[in-house]
Write a structure and sequence with these properties.
The protein is an alpha/beta fold and about 325 residues long. The chain contains 8 helices and 17 strands. About 25% of the residues lie in helices and about 25% in strands. α1 runs parallel beside α8. It is elongated, with a radius of gyration of 21 Å.
Length: about 325
């Protein structure tokens, strides 16, 4: 069994930042990742642009050189790949963690698909992008329905229904429309989401106002068939012809995993995990949270820009507790 001072679960930007902080502190560490390096970023839409500027995405004091103030997905993936190479971080890719058990005070046994680990401290930096929030409507399991959007070409000249009104939904609506799709949006709220990127929001609002993109506000999907979607609107049920559904309904952390590790979650529907904001330590001594996973269902609260500090908080607390 391999022994470490710190095992970090998740090799996203914040997991990598934790690895850098551990390395600088002289701790013996490993980062375990179930997929590719920065796996969530890898699965983002091809042409996604970050809301944050390049300098706000930096970790480990490594400059992020970008052609534009707000970098895109490809630049970010390249940047974090170079950061991994610069520090020669100890990252094990395609090694999903299957169990974390506290066997004694500040002693954890970790099981993965490839091996077993023993550590005094665990950092959970698993993000939230892997589990969609499902609509739970008939037909959601049909092959034409997807909760992820990669690029617009395969939707060209098709009837596409997009559920949601935040950044992912708006990007998908505009990109597919510009490639010739007939786009309909179904939006629970009365307007486009307030957190949509400020340079994109007027674009989609204008396309809706001119009728290029059809939008049903204060509405929801009731059922999906092979050729239609049934929409509940303020004026009653509407049936629209349809080839593809992109359900951009959001994503959530792996709460089942957190509970299995012993992390307490709030009793309300936000499912906020228990942790100390100063140290990031959970209710389980020696187990820490970092990044988006800290927000529970409020996945908009934490992102790369404002959670980079979690790494130093955690490692400082681990060092002071030794």
């Amino acid at each position: 069994m391999s022994k470490y001072d710190v095992v970090i679960i998740g090799a996203g930007p914040i997991g990598l930042a934790c690895g850098i902080a551990a390395q600088k502190a002289g701790l013996n560490y490993v980062v375990l990742e179930k997929g590719a390096l920065v796996n969530s970023l890898f699965n983002y839409p091809l042409f996604m642009t970050f809301f944050s500027t390049a300098d706000r995405l930096e970790i480990g004091d490594v400059p992020f050189m970008s052609m534009t103030p707000k970098p895109g997905r490809q630049e970010a993936i390249e940047y974090y790949r170079q950061v991994k190479r610069k520090f020669d971080l100890n990252v094990h890719l395609y090694e999903p963690v299957t169990a974390v058990k506290e066997v004694a005070k500040n002693l954890f046994h970790i099981t993965t698909g490839k091996g077993n680990y023993e550590t005094a401290n665990v950092i959970i930096a698993t993000g939230f992008y892997d589990i969609p929030i499902y609509m739970n409507v008939p037909g959601e399991e049909l092959p034409k329905v997807s909760h992820y959007y990669k690029e617009p070409h395969n939707y060209a000249f098709q009837k596409v229904l997009i559920v949601g009104a935040n950044n992912s939904a708006v990007d998908a609506a505009l990109e597919t429309w510009r490639k010739g799709a007939e786009v309909t949006m179904v939006i629970r709220q009365e307007a486009i989401g307030p957190r949509v990127k400020y340079w994109v929001k007027p674009d989609v609002e204008n396309r809706i106002a001119e009728g290029s993109i059809k939008a049903y506000f204060s509405s929801s999907v009731k059922a999906i068939t092979a050729s239609t979607v049934e929409i509940e609107t303020p004026d009653g049920i509407v049936s629209v012809a349809n080839d593809f559904v992109l359900a951009m309904t959001g994503y959530r952390p792996n709460f089942e995993m957190l509970r299995s590790f012993g992390v307490s979650l709030s009793d309300n529907d936000r499912l906020h995990p228990a942790y100390n904001e100063e140290t990031m330590e959970t209710n389980v001594p020696g187990m820490y949270l970092a990044g988006v996973v800290c927000g529970g269902m409020d996945t908009h609260k934490w992102f790369i820009e404002n959670s980079r500090v979690h790494a130093d908080k955690i490692i400082s607390h681990i060092i002071s507790s030794k």
